[in-house]
Amino acid sequence: MAKWVYLFKEGNATMKNLLGGKGANLAEMTNLGLPVPQGFTITTEACTQYYEDDQQINDEIMGQIMDAIVKMEEITGKKFGDTENPLLVSVRSGARASMPGMMDTILNLGLNEEVVDVIAAKSGNPRWAWDCYRRFIQMYSDVVMEVGKKYFEELIDKMKADRGVTQDVELTADDLKELANQFKAEYKEKLGQDFPTDPKEQLMGAIKAVFRSWDNPRANVYRRDNDIPYSWGTAVNVQMMAFGNMGETSGTGVAFTRNPATGEKKLMGEFLMNAQGEDVVAGVRTPQHIDQLKDVMPEVYDQFVEICHTLEDHYRDMQDMEFTIEDKHLYMLQTRNGKRTAAAALKIACDLVDEGMITEDKAVLMIDPRNLDSLLHPQFDANAVKAATPIARALAAAPGAASGKVVFTADDAKAWAEKGEKIVLVRLETSPEDIEGMKAAQGILTARGGMTSHAAVVARGMGTCCVSGCSDIVMDEENKVFKLGGKEYHEGDVISFDGTTGNIYDGALPTVDATIAGEFGRIMEWADKYRTMKVRTNADTPEDAKKARELGAEGIGLCRTEHMFFAGDRIDAFREMICADTLEEREAALAKILPVQQGDFEALYEALEGNPVTIRFLDPPLHEFVPTEEDDIKKLADAQGKTVERIKEIIDGLHEFNPMMGHRGLRLAVTYPEIAKMQTSAVIRAAINVKKAHPDWTIKPEIMIPLAGDKKELAYVKKFVVETADAEIAAAGSDMEYEVGTMIEIPRAALTADEIAKEAEFFCFGTNDLTQMTYGFSRDDAGKFLDAYYDAKIFESDPFSRLDQDGVGKLMKMAIELGKKTRPELHIGICGEHGGDPTSVEFCNTIGLDYVSCSPFRVPIAKLAAAQAALNSK
Ligand code: ADP
Ligand code: MG
Ligand code: MG
Predict the structure, then answer these.
(1) pTM, whole model, 2 decimals?
(2) Residue of 87, 132, 278 to mutate, ligand 1, most atoms within 8 A of C-beta
(3) Residues contacting 698, CB < 8 A, separation 6+
(4) Ligand 1 atom closest to 278 (CA)
(5) Has 454 been annotated as catalytic?
(6) Taking CA atoms, which of 192, 428, 641, 825 is between 20 and 30 Å from 92?
């Protein structure tokens, strides 16, 4: 028979998966001999079983709960529903990973009319007794029966007003008794039944409610944001009450052993006398600083400080604790490794190493890579944020802080930025033509679109702050004005927004820049020691490449050349190329682009100082480049000596029903070999030139052909790429070596990787396309239905941000195995957005990739994740 229920003294800290974090640590504290009110934990597996049994607690689990109650009664010497010595308990949720405030807790369970009278009389403290009872009715109604909290709060407010008092503590025993009666009446009115009096019935109701709370909407969202699987379930802790509301010698508090905002090694926390549970955080009264406990109750304070030392020493990490003082007796109710800001995480890890508490590898393991994101972008000055009130909130699509003058078009963004203005681009939504303007902006705000909209994806790639899907905006792009927060904003008006919180502010907020110095630098150094997988960056410009190098990138894993064609002087020549009618016209246009492109690549090789650079040839469908405005079409027609009609005809001819699966990638090279030839010449000439200037650098161009699906099509393109490259090398009298590889982003390429590897000298997984094509849905449209998929528990996360290891991952494993069979020296990387996602990075390490490549701002995140993956695999 499975064991579904554990007494605290039967568990320990290593049993988090089964007992949840709270339960495992209550057990551990019990074993350490700390004062913990005793009780038992119903396992996370029981929660899973509850859902499997159609939200019923089955007989076996029920039986074990009943046995545990009997044992708990023996241990505490109290009995449920007893009129002599009644047992009152809390029923608390607690998952494997802490999810603060996401699930529910009920306190003072076990009370009824009879029991409350007994404890009121026996304790000589009727105020306490009735305070417990009214709290219990309130919480039970809210959590178990889902009668809204607000009805009870209204009654409390009314009572306070009637009595002419402002604080809960000023209500007398009689007031609280009356409140309890009002609450019960409210309960009956709302639910048409009496408030339950049988403690065991109350207990079962509460346990079920905690199980149910695992599936409440806020818990579901929290889990998705924090990569916590639904399948884990929550444990339920049933614990004897410690009463902080017995009067002025009782109280309750929370504390951190170190400062969770800064990491400073100093006890931080708050407490309230004559209070219970959440009173401290709920702000019913202003709590006192933990240091003041020294004056209020010196002995309890000393004991608490002692316990803090014991716990930090034991867990070797900063602890976040809850405690209650019941008539001068201290009880510990919770401890866990405290949540902290990224800055605090770095400081605490370094301090613990310096204090000899942990080793460097432990320090590397204790930092959540996801957290670093907030340190890698310019940030608002924390004090300024505190003082400001947001005018609206949008999706936090790409982290960072943006502050500047509003512009409404990408062209304006560029023009204003060139004049030296700090601007933010505000649009209904963005499209590929907006790239230049998006780059020029401090931040991008869109009224439409979700986390995977064009604006969001591109902004994350560029490391530009973006908030998207701000539905409150009333937008009039044509007249360059929008309404928000009751105010009209015109071009040039200043706003600020925070890509980490999604908050939007009126006016300018001051920002501070990000650097990898001090503790951040130390941690990254340690990470590099343990890491085996390389981390490259996706960078299209020398500036991005430099930034990425500063942040520790070891090469470029993906340089998307199409972005190079958007800049002012090139787009014209490129449009001429697209709208050419003959090969000669096309070659003439390409001849104009060649030197510019060569210059781009030279600058990249310079920036990379001998580190590898993978250059991907033109990928997107050509219609993304053609003009849409009449003026631009006219200009193009004039430049080519063609009629506007002819140009429009050509543009119309580019129309595709499904461009993502259309004429793009190496299909462009098959139909227009001269484009790939031009790009080959540009790469090789650039490499030869830079090598000449820096003979000691290793320069071995990696030419990457996108979107191959068939060995023969790759062979077809590779042939003229190699001919062109060899001719350039021969003409320069050089001995430059180079490689031609491909992206694996079409399932067929993965399935036939042994064949593909006969041509390709390296693979790089383009997991954005590979995910898109494996699932058969477009990432630009997935936003429309993903929410429904989350609600229906079909998906727990967005497969475009977190790699689908079962499906896409299987194709990757297959491609690696097949590819290496043909070509053992094949080097393999990944360059989709997944390359910067910690969980996906861990997977890439497991399947043996040589490197991951991600946007510059995610390089330190990927490096840390790679180090953790290496350490965890040992
Ligand atoms: P959360 O996980 O949201 O913090 P908890 O289960 O920790 O929820 O409980 C909420 C509050 O009730 C906390 O302040 C906690 O200290 C308090 N509490 C829980 N159990 C007891 C108990 N047995 N005695 C006294 N206070 C308790
Ligand atoms: Mg808690
Ligand atoms: Mg692709």
Answers:
(1) 0.84
(2) 278
(3) 610, 612
(4) 14
(5) yes
(6) 192
Decide: 463 in ligand 1 pocket, CB within 6 A.
Answer: no
Crossing angle of the two packed helices 838-846 and 859-872, in degrees rounded to 10: 50
At 336, give phi and psi (nearest 5°): -160, 160
Evaluate whether 741 touches 763 at the Cβ level (below 8 Å): yes
Q: Find the helix packing angle between 113-123 and 126-139, rounded to 10°.
A: 150
In whole angstroms, what is the distance from residue 271 CA to residue 292 CA?
Answer: 9
Domains of the chain: 5-243 (3.30.1490.20), 244-340 (3.30.470.20), 377-512 (3.50.30.10), 531-621+656-873 (3.20.20.60)
Distance CA 305, CA 255 (A): 10
In 3D space, the residue among 529, 520, 530, 376 whose CA is nearest the CA of residue 868 turns out to be: 530
Q: Count CB neighbours of 584 within 10 A.
A: 9
Q: What is the pLDDT of residues 763-818, one digit of tens each?
A: 999 999 999 999 999 888 888 899 899 989 899 889 998 999 999 999 999 999 99
Question: From the candidates 466, 831, 844, 854, which is the catalytic residue?
Answer: 831
CB of 241 within 6 A of ligand 1: the answer is yes
Q: Where are the beta strands (DSSP E) in 9-124?
A: 39-42, 89-95, 105-109
SS3 826: coil
Q: Ligand 1: does its nearest atom lie under 6 Å from the Cβ of 242? A: yes
137 near 182, Cβ under 8 Å? no
